[in-house]
Amino acid sequence: MLLKRLTEAMGPPGFEDDIREVIRAEAKPFADRCDTDVLGNLICEKGAGNPGVRVMVDAHMDEVGLMIVHVEDNGLLRFRALGGIDPRVLVSKPVRIGRDGRPGVIGAKPVHLQSQEERGKPLKMEQLYIDIGARDKDDALAVVQPGDVAVFATECETIGDGCVKAKSLDDRIGCAVLLEILKRTYRLPLFAVFTVQEEIGLRGAGPAAHRIRPDVAISVEGTVCFDVVDAPGHGQATVLGRGPAFTVQDGRTLADRRFLEFLIAVAEKYNIPYQLRRVKGGSNNFAAIQRTREGVAGGAISVPVRYIHAPAQIASLDDYEHTIRLLDAVLREIEAGAWTG
Amino acid sequence: MADRSGARFLTELMSLHGGPGFEHRVAEYVKGALAPLCTDVCYDRMGNLVARIAGDAGDADAPADPHADARPAAASAARPKQRPPRLMLAAHVDEIALIVTRIEEGGFLRVAQTGGFDPRTLVGQEVVVHASRPLRGVVGSKPPHLTTPEERKKAPSLEDLFIDLAMPEVRVREQVRVGDRVTIHRDPLELMNGRIAGKALDNRASAAVLLECARTLRSLRHEADVYLVCTVQEEVGMRGAAAVVETVRPDIAIAVDVTFGDFPGQAPDESFKLGKGPAITFGPNIHPQVFGGLRDTAVRHHIPYQIELSQEPTGTDANAFQTAGDGVATGLVGVAIRYVHTSVECVAYADIEDCGRLLAFYATTVDRSVVEGLSCY
After folding, report:
1. Is this prediction's ipTM beyond 0.85?
2. B10 and B159 inside one domain
3. Which residues of A, range 110-129, sit inside 8 Å of B by Cβ?
4. Which of B230, B253, B227, B224 is CA-nearest to residue B40?
């Protein structure tokens, strides 16, 4: 399963080597060429010489992760976050460290030995360590160095009714959508970009857009979904299974209204369910792309993902399929001249 | 680890699910491993597994089925002369679990404890709901994009947590009932130095100790009948332990249970080193001669050991054993694991081997004179 290969690969921001190789192998048979730029973005071209609207579709390949910063005398590893991780999701989870994916666990002081006061407080990142089974500092340093990175060790599996559970669905699900699109052929210059460093401030997308000079850019993102018990309607952001979500306004972007209306019109024409993303927080690569050079038209299509930035995230496979269908329809409409900008 | 079959037995045991009151699949797995090494194996009415290795003394009156044990009216005084000494080595095989208390709108599940989870360790965890068929779920967590700084300062309580089965409410209601049990889904991990991490090492590590002990005993002579026991319902308050004392009527009962591995911020006397041998407990819950016998055995056989000091009844089956029946001479040994009651508990397998050997060699020292001496103060 493509989603399994993508979500189980490693790629914290700035350390996307493993996931980039996985994506390159998937993309190569279908793209005319796959290049990397100076930041490490992977740019896959298809029909770059075609006449028509230059379209850039992007998904970020990085994921939230951890960096080992210090090895204690007792062999436990101190770490810090790469990207936005709530320390409360780290306790009692397995991780994989470094290129060889060495297993480790994030433990905590047993509840039996904690005072009532301690129990009432969340554990801070400074109180947590990764345990790789090392006997002492030298034993640990033989296999792990400060600067090595780690990610959650979550197996990608189907769960419940038509859903998938994995780490890094934010945004490997977007990467999967792009790879499915690359398999198809459009009569326009298409650039599928797998970007780096989205999770620490949308760092990769701007330079990629600057280089590509797209007429239209579409970011495909795994976005916040909190349609759970006790969450008020206005705090849900998106609802699982109701289709891809369009941004109106988020932490960094006011939607390009023309393109938003275009997305809605295409979804309705092709009878594809969609929803509006209903939360102001968070953002995606389109915020960076929109402001490159003289400004770029476009928007974001997001797949709702429950528990993003946590070890076990959940997405609906219907939403995933609908997102592929929608992006395909959007490209077909652009190809047919329906987007006049 | 020259022979890895013990570690394999442990990781397979960890992968099984069995919270308090539903230990049967776990006990059956242990039974399958112990039966070829034992004289007879049975369950008592509570569900405790009792596997007996007959001693060399011959045991005409030791029953194959403990339920059939005729109990003479004035047994207590005469018993040691009438039958071989009985040494019971007991490990609880239940793991901490949760129980479904409510199906909420949207099909999300609320749960209560059956055992002592730190709710903070449940956030973002993968679980198995033991419904009409096993269902996989995720304990939800609010993404950092939506949490306020105030929220992040709060430790979640169990009441706030919910399980997401990724299916519509109507499908959840078809399959899940209030009262269904929930356990952690976690594949065991192999770390460096033969260390193993995962769920339920408390107390499946001790079940592995029993297996190591049984294997070592095969090549040793022992007068005592050795009873290898898997108890139930320890995690909700040692509920299986007293019953199994009535079943086995041991002269000496040693609980095998995990203790706290070292971790920054823990008191030194509550921090045991992984890989430095089993911990032997000393204190009011422990019969001094049993403690002394275990320690002397470790010294004689060059088995590394650590001493754990306790000041009150321990939080283990040893607590119940000591005061069950007419009172039992009780011991407590176990291996140190890090992160007790999380789903990433961590053990050094060498400690399990050492603990198994310690108990086997101790068993060879238990004879009638040792048993008679237990009541002489």
Report:
1. yes
2. no
3. 110-114, 119-123, 127, 129
4. B227
